[in-house]
Amino acid sequence: MKLIDNVTSTVRDDLRQTLHKGSKVSIAAACFSIYAYQALKKQLDAVDEVRFVFTAPTFIQEKPSKQQREFYIPRLSRERSLYGTEFEVKLRNELTQKAIAQECAQWIRRKVHFRSNVSNQQIQGFINVDETTYMPINGFTTVDLGCERGNNVFYFVHRTEAFENGRKFLNLFEEIWNDAQKLQDVTDCVVESISTVYQENAPEFIYFFALYNIFQAFLEEASEDVLPNDLTGFKQSKIWNMLYSFQKDAALAIINKLEKYNGCILADSVGLGKTFTALAVIKYYENRNRSVLVLCPKKLAENWSTYKGNYVNNPIAQDRLRYDVLYHTDLSRETGTSGGIDLSRLNWSNYDLVVIDESHNFRNGGEVSGVNERENRYLRLLNKVIRAGVRTRVLMLSATPVNNRFYDLRNQLALAYEGDAAQINDKLNTSHTIDEIFRSAQKAFNAWSQLPTERRTTEALLKTLDFDFFEVLDSVTIARSRKHIEKYYSTADVGKFPERLKPISLRPNLTDLDGAINYNEIYTLLMALNLSIYTPSNYILPSRVAKYIDLTHNKGDRLTQRGREEGIRRLMSINLLKRLESSVYSFRLTIERIREFINTTIEQILAFAGGDALLDVQEADAAADFDADDLNTDFFSVGKKLRIRLADMDYKSWLHELEQDAETLKLLSRMVADITPEHDAKLKALIALIREKQAHPINAGNRKIIIFAAFSDTADYLYQNISGFALKEYGLHTAEITGSVDGKTTIPRLSGDLNTVLTCFSPRSKGRDVLMPGSGAEIDILIATDCISEGQNLQDCDYLVNYDIHWNPVRIIQRFGRIDRIGSQNCCIQLVNFWPDVDLDEYINLKSRVETRMKLTVMTSTGDDNLISPEEKGDLEYRSAQLKRLKNEVVDLEEMSGGISIMDLGLNEFRLDLLDYMKKHDDVEHMPLGMHAIVASTPDAPPGVIFVLKNISNEINVDQQNRLHPFYMVYIGQDGSTVCDYLSPKELLDRLRLLCKGKTEPDQSLCQQFNQATDDGKNMSAYSELLSEAINSILDAKEESDIDSLFKMGGTTALLSSISGLDDFELICFLVVQ
Asked: Which end of the chain is more exposed for a tag (fewer CB within 10 A), N or C?
C-alpha cells in the first residue's frame, strides 16, 4: 500500500508509471474533465479500454421539473466540468480547449464507455488500472490528479495492489457496471457535449451566450409580475404589428420599468416614432383593463384623439383604444370641458397609467404661489392624479428631457415615485439615494461646463459621472439616437434614414424698394417701446393697492396679477421681434392691434374727468399674437380680466407712456406700409425657391414642399400669395394648417380638417389608399405653423422650408423631424432656412438685449434683483451656438444638447433581448465556457478580439466604475491596442450585437482561415497574448479610474480591490474579428 500526498508525489505521476499498452481502466468519479485526459494523453491513448461510471446522476435523459431545479444545478456543474472545473480556469484561459476537446472526443469514440448512476444510492469514487486501485477519488480532473491545488487543505490518495484489496474494488465495479437498474449508458451524451467545444459556433449564439452569462442574475430575478405578459394578447394587436423592431424593444422595456419602478422616460430622438411605441404600451394596459390618461400640449391633442377614435383615418381603429386625452393646461382648470370631458366632475385619481407627452414641460418641478397657495401644474398633476386614488404608473415622452440641468430629469422622474424618494431608493441598485445621485451629477456637470471648449467632450462628462447615475438612467429611461438605430438595428428591417443635404440659408432684404427701411432701423424703434398698456397694475396708487389685493394675487404658478402682466408684456416685446422676422405682414397686423388697443385705452382715460369711471383692463389677443410655445405658459391659462377705478391710478403717468408708444407705433406702421406682396423680397425669394424645386426636384418626381411659419398670420399671408401661383403655373394644390381653425386647401370640396389635409399631403406615410379609397386628392405644398412640428410623420415630402427661424433651435430640428424619418422613400432631403438680413452675431445679441431689457423693467417693478440667471444666460449662449451650427448642418438633438444626452447609457434592451431568446432556446445553459465565433471586420470594427471575462477572486469588491461587475468586456485590436475598454460596457455590447445578431450560421470560409492560422486550435499563442493584453487594459483602466476617484466626492475605489492578473479572471467566450 502506498500513500500519495499530491504534493511531493502526485496521482498523475503515479498513473504515468502504472498505465501501459493494453491496460484496462475502470473509473468511478463524480465528474470527468478533458484537461485530466490531456494530463495523461500519451498513456490513455495506449490503453485498451476505459469504463467510466458517474457516481451521481449526470447526462441522464429526462429534463428536470421545476421542483428538481435545486438538484439540477449541481448536476449541471458536474456536466460542465467536462470542459474544465473552476480550478482549471488557468488551463481554459490558454484557449487550447478546442484542440484538446477534439482529441478527447476521438479517443472516447475509440476506447471509452460512460455510464451514469441513476439510483439514489451513493457510489464511492476510485480508479482501477488492471489490478491496481487508487482511492478515494472525487472526480477525474487535474485537481484529483494532483496537477492543480484546488481548494483542498490536503488530498491523500491510497494506492492498493491486487494482493491487498485491489481485486475487491474491481469485482465491485463489475457488479455495478452490469446492473441496468443502477446505471444508464451516457457515452453518446458525453461525446456530443464535448463536441460542442470544437464545433464552429454561429456569431449570434456567442452574442446570446455572453448575454446569458452577464445577465443570468437578471433572468433569475425577472418575475412574471414585472415582465410584459404575452397572454394579454397585445402582441396580436394592430399597433404591435405596425412597430419596427427597435420600437418593440422599447415597448417591452417600458412595461418592465413601469411595473418595477412605476415610471419611465422614453427619450428617443426626433423621428423615431415615440407616439406609436407609447400606443403599444397603452394597448397592453388597456388589455389588462386599466384606465389610461394621455396628457399632451393642446396642439398634439388632435393626433392622440385620432388613434382612439372610430374614424376611417385611424390606422389602428381595430384596437379600439379608449384612453382619455387632456391638455397640460387642463391641470390648472377646475371647471369647463376639454375634449368632451367635464373637468368639474372628472375623477382625476382613478387612472392606472398616465402618459405625459412632451414631459419636459414639467421639468421645473412643483411650486406653490400666492396667498391662497395655488399649486402649479406640476403639483396638481402630482397631487390630483398620481398620489391620490389608485396606484398610477407614469410614462413620459420627450426628445429633450434635459434642457441644461440634470435636475430637469429628476423633477420628471419624481412624478413616478410621487415625489417621495424613499419609494424609489429601495428599488434601485445604488449605493446612494436618488437625491444624492442627482446632486453629485449636477455638481459634476457644472464643473464640466466650466471646462474649455476643446476639453468639454461627452467622454469627459461621462468619466466624471458615477456608477449610480448610470444605474438610475438604466433603470428608468430609454433613449436611442438616430445614429444608434442606424448602427445597431438591421436597416433591412427598419429602412434607411434619408441623406441630409447641406441646409440652404437665405437672407433676403425686407423689401426691394429703394431707400426703404431695414431690419436695424426697425429694431431701434422697437427698443424704444414701453408696452405699459399690458401692465396697468403697476400704476395703481400705493395707498389704494390694498383694495385690489385679491385681484392682483393668486393667479397661478408664482404669479401675482402684476407678475402675470409683466410676463405678457415681456413676451409681447420679444414677440414683436419674432413677428418681424416671420413676415412684414404679420408684424404690421400686430402693430395695428396694439395701436388700436392703446388708442381705445387713451380715449377711456381722456373721457375721465375726476369721475368714478371703471377701466376694464383688456387682455392681449393671445391666439392671434403669440406662437404655440408662448401660449403654453400659465400667463394665458390663469387670471381674470381686471377692473380698476381710474381714480385709484396714477393715470397721468400711464397716459404719458401710452401716448409715447402710440406715436412710435404710428411711425413703425407708416414705415412698413408700402412693403406690399409685390415688394416683399422674402416672399419673392420663397416663390423663386418653389420654382427651382419644380424645375430640379431632388428626388425624381417629388414636388412636395412643407413651409413652416411660427404665426398663423404669416401662414395666411403665404397661402394667399402662393396657392394661386402654384396652381396656375404648376398645377400644384396648396393647403394651410394653423391649428386654431380648420385648414384651407385649393382642392374643391376637400375637408380642411388636419387629418384629411395631412393624409392628402403625405399619402404613403398616412395610408391615403386605405383611409380614402378611390381618392386621388394630392396636396403638394403645405403651409403650417408649429401645430404639426411634433408627432407627425410626413416623410413623403423631401423639402422643408423654415420661413422664419424659431428662437428655440430645438423647434427647428423638431420641424425637420417631420420628413427626416426612418423608412423614408426619399434618397435625400433638403432643409431651407430664412434668416433676417442682419449679421448673425448682431441678431443674437439683439435677442439677448431685448430679453435683458425686459428683465430690467421686471426688476424695477417686482423687486426681483436677479437680472438674468446663470441658467438663462447659459440658455442664451447655448441657443446662439446652436443657431450658428444650424446655418451649416442639420444637427441631431442629442448632439445639440450641449453635451447632456441620456442616449447610449441603458443596458435594458440587452436584458430583454436575452429574455426573448431564452423563451425559444435553452441551449446556452449547457454550453462550455471559453467558446468563440468568427466574424468579418468592418470599417467600424477593426480586426481583433472581443473578450468576455469574469472576475473570480472573491475578495474583490464591486468596482464602482464597471456596471457589469463581475463581468468585464474588452475589445483588443490585432496589434494589441485597446479599441474599447471595459468602462464602456454599453458600447461593447452594442458592437457585439451589431457584429453577431442575425448571423445564425458560422461563416465557413472565415473558420477555415482561422483553423489554418491556429493549426486547428492547437497553436493559440497569438490569441493568448491578446488575452493578456485585455487583462492588462483592465488593470490600466482600473488604476487610472482609481486615481481619478481620489479626487471625487463619494469616496475612492482605489482601496477597494486588488486585481492582480490573468488568474483573477475566467474566460467566458470571445469573438474573433478577422
From this structure: N
